[in-house]
Amino acid sequence: MVVRWLMRQMDKVALQDRSYMFLFEPGPADEYISIDCETTGLDRKRDEIISVAAIRIKGNQILASESFRAITRPRIAIDPEAIKVHGLREQDVAQAPTMAEVLPELLHFIGGRPLVGYYIDFDLEMLNKHVAELIGVELPNPVVEVSGIYYDLKYGSAPPGTQVDLKFASILRDLKLPLFNQHDAYSDALMTAMIYVGLRDLKERGVTISRPRFKPKQDYSGG
User: Domain Exonuclease: where (predicted)?
Assistant: First the structure.
């Protein structure tokens, strides 16, 4: 906590555009932002965002009508393998604004609210390349990783050797939530928000997620 506080203070000093100081202020009480990005590929240093979506959460409510979404034009070509995943082609993004053009609106939408995501480190690394170009520092927002909450509720007390499944579809299935069109930024952000609200409810009620009980193999060899 102390290290994070010191880093935030250093980032405040390094902030190049003081009009973005609001990012360091606490957001509205009990509000979060579920966020997801689709990219030109999976190389964190080289690839770029081509689609981003963010949805506001207030308490246990998903404010789907209060959302941000944008298709953006990258500075590099889209990897053909990535097109197979998200379906966005060069012609789909050719006339879109750049990430630099949509980023100010996204940052004002996010504000100082904590960011919720599924394996959110990747999304943040992709976002922070552009954020640092704009304001000189990375996003200071607190981060909530839904797979971590899920792990604690399902596998926190599991014995050594337990097989762990943190797949997105598996989490949705355990929470009895619908699987929408995956690898669409808005759909993924919405499903992530649903996962967060579901996990939060279980955690607040002290409910864990059941896991299969494996019986030891019996020896039928006789003797």
Answer: 31-205
